[in-house]
Structures are given as structure tokens and as C-alpha cells.
Design goal:
Layout (H helix, E strand, L loop, with lengths): L2 E4 L9 H10 L4 E7 L11 H10 L3 E7 L7 H6 L4 E5 L6 H10 L3 E6 L17 E5 L15 H14 L4 E5 L6 H8 L3 E4 L1 H4 L4 H10 L3
Helix pairs in contact: 5-6
This protein binds 5-O-phosphono-D-xylulose.
């Protein structure tokens, strides 16, 4: 069964605490928080103060995805804010190893993220040091996009590397995840599914999370 990480990008910001409590009580495994800087991706979202505020009202595992250029400058702020895991895009820094070290040295789980156009070979050197790999299944920056099926092969490749080398990272997927697209990803080796619009654009987000779990049993 896949773990589910609702993405608050699609939550109702005016009733954010209500939406977070709903998915927390309903069995969410993580809460996914997308940090966008308007440079690495076209949109701007939230900063460390936002993560700190959520930390005060929720015990959920905070899965913070930095879609920002040169993330190393911001990592400490997001550690201090109470993140449980911090993800950095391999395309956003010349120093991916250093960025991951900074996260780990701060006592937080470390994740490397790859965009749909980025090959797995680019992150191979750091796979032995991460707790999670995020395979973007859409181009990052916006919720509600269509899943890109060609990304499934990369999930399978990462699963094979994990088995061959005895690594134990989780493989997370993000973008266009729904009750259909999640199935092939799960079969290929995905262990965590981020879902934004599928979960929150429904009157019953908990039922949607349960569906993602049910179809991957
Ligand atoms: O990273 C992103 C968007 O770039 C996400 O985490 C979105 O929140 C996913 O939204 P859906 O595709 O599930 O609507």
C-alpha cells in the first residue's frame, strides 16, 4: 500500500488549519509543502514562516519540497522551522552533495528531486546518502497538471538501483497523481504519493486518500 502525502498547494488557504486537521485525522502519512521562488519555477508560494506556523498546529510529518534556485542558502531556515524532510532539486544547484549534507547534518531527512527531463544518472552519485527520491511526474510549479507516463520508467530504474545496491530510500511521485496514475507508479516501485488536486478538490479528501491506498494494496 502506498503512503499518501496530501499537497497543501491545493488546500483551501482560508481554512488551512481545518483542511490539515481533516487529512491528519484521516490518516495522511506526510503533509507535502511546496516552496516556490518565482525563479526556479514560475510561481511563488510560501517561506519558512509558513512551515513554522503549520508545525504549531500539526504533528504530521512535514515533507518540504524546495523548488528554489540555490537551495543551500535556505536549508537552515527550513530546518529551524520544523521540517521533517527537505527535498532539493538536482537542477537547482551546482552542489547537490553539499546541499544534502547540510540537510542531514541538521538532523532532518534528505531528499533529492528530479524533473521529468532529468535522467536518473544525474543523481546516481548521491543515491547512497538520501532518505527519499522524488520523481516529478509533471514539470514543477503548478497543481492540477496532467501526469507524464514516461516518468514511470525512472521509478522502475530507481527501484532497481535500490535493490541492486541495498539502499533503502523511499521513492515519491508528485504531479497528476490520481486513482489511475498511481497504480503503474506503485507497481514500478513508488512508495509515497503526493496528491494535491485529487485529494483537496473534493468534498471528501479522506475518501480520496483512502482510494489511493486501496488501489495500491
Ligand atoms: O509539486 C507540485 C506542483 O509542482 C505539487 O506538489 C502539486 O501540488 C501537485 O498537484 P496535483 O498535480 O496533485 O494537483
Amino acid at each position: 500500500m502506498i503512503k499518501v502525502a496530501p499537497s497543501i498547494l491545493s488546500a483551501d488557504y482560508v481554512n488551512l488549519q481545518r483542511d490539515i486537521e481533516k487529512v491528519e485525522k484521516g490518516g495522511a502519512d506526510y503533509l507535502h509543502i511546496d516552496v516556490m521562488d518565482g525563479t526556479f519555477v514560475p510561481s511563488i508560494s510560501y517561506g519558512p514562516g509558513f512551515v513554522k506556523a503549520i508545525r504549531k498546529v500539526s504533528n504530521l510529518f512535514l515533507d518540504v519540497h524546495l523548488m528554489v534556485q540555490n537551495p543551500e542558502h535556505l536549508i537552515q531556515d527550513f530546518i529551524d522551522a520544523g521540517s521533517d524532510l527537505i527535498g532539493v532539486q538536482v537542477e537547482a544547484t551546482s552542489h547537490i552533495h553539499r546541499a544534502l549534507q547540510l540537510i542531514k547534518n541538521g538532523g532532518v531527512k534528505a531528499e533529492v528531486v528530479i524533473n521529468p527531463g532529468t535522467p536518473v544518472s544525474l543523481i546516481e552519485p548521491v543515491l547512497g546518502m538520501v532518505d527519499q527520491v522524488l520523481v516529478m511526474t509533471v514539470n514543477p510549479g503548478f497543481g492540477g497538471q496532467k501526469f507524464l507516463p514516461e516518468t514511470v520508467a525512472k521509478i522502475a530504474q530507481l527501484d532497481q538501483i535500490k535493490k541492486d545496491r541495498g539502499y533503502d530510500y523511499d521513492i515519491e511521485i508528485d504531479g497528476g497523481v490520481n486513482n489511475q496514475t498511481v497504480v503503474d507508479c506503485y507497481k514500478a516501485g513508488a512508495t509515497v504519493a503526493v496528491a494535491g488536486s485529487y485529494v483537496f478538490n473534493d468534498a471528501d479528501p479522506v475518501a480520496k486518500m483512502n482510494t489511493l491506498k486501496d488501489v495500491t494494496k
